[in-house]
Amino acid sequence: MSKMQEKLKYRLIGLFVIVLSAGILFPLFFNGDGYRERHLESAIPEVPLLPEVVAIEPQSITLPDTSEVAAPEEPRPVVKKSAELVKKIERKKPVISVDEDKPVLDKQGVPVAWTLQLATFSDEGNAKELRTQLIGAGHKVYTRKNGTLVKVYVGPDFQRSNLESLKTRLKKDLNLDGIIVRFSTR
């Protein structure tokens, strides 16, 4: 035998011994004793039962007959109004003249509304104070900030004549001389 064949023979024998020992030892070490199968509980709920179908028949309720005129109610006693309450009611009552100063639409079909600009303040606190005073007097008031200036407005109203009468009343009551401008949402 040559030296080459002997080396091959030893290598084959060594390979056979390794495979045989692996075949014997593998089942001993890897028999599955250390492995425990995980048994997780299912988080999936059971299939729900289908709801029971209930047949509901519509019921018509007969309404009372309203073809007869109702009987008049008992007269109620009239509460006397104080002169101060009458003045408040009259002051808040809007005066709308259908013939004069009719509301109109502009070119886009938007109603033209007017508002009374009463004052312009550089201090926002002063504007809030005037707004609170005017709201207390029962007026519709809003403010708009333009840069550092805050403007106080009363209105809006569709009839300019209403704002003109309000302007004269505020001039007399609060000594505020405003200007009437076209109302805009900006």
Topology:
Elements: H1 3-29, H2 83-92, E1 114-121, H3 124-136, E2 141-146, E3 149-157, H4 160-174, E4 179-182
Form type = elongated
Q: What structural class do helix, strand and pairing data support?
A: alpha+beta
Q: What percentage of the residues does DSSP assign to strands (E)? A: 5-15%
- What Rg is obtained from the alpha carbons, in whole angstroms? 47 Å
Spatial arrangement of strands, main beta sheet: 2-3-1-4
Q: Helix-strand pattern, N to C? A: HHEHEEHE
- Summarize the main sheet: 4 strands, antiparallel
Distance between the termini: 110 Å
Unreliably modeled segments: none
The amount of helix comes to: 25-40%
Q: Compute the number of helices.
A: 4
List keywords for this structure.
186 residues; alpha+beta; 4-stranded antiparallel β-sheet; 4 helices; 4 strands
Describe this structure in words.
This protein has helices spanning 3-29, 83-92, 124-136, 160-174, and strands at residues 114-121, 141-146, 149-157, 179-182. It is of the alpha+beta class. It is elongated and about 140 Å long. It starts with a helix and ends with a strand.
Outline of the structure:
By secondary structure, the protein is an alpha+beta fold. The chain has four helices and four strands. 35% of the residues lie in helices and 15% in strands.
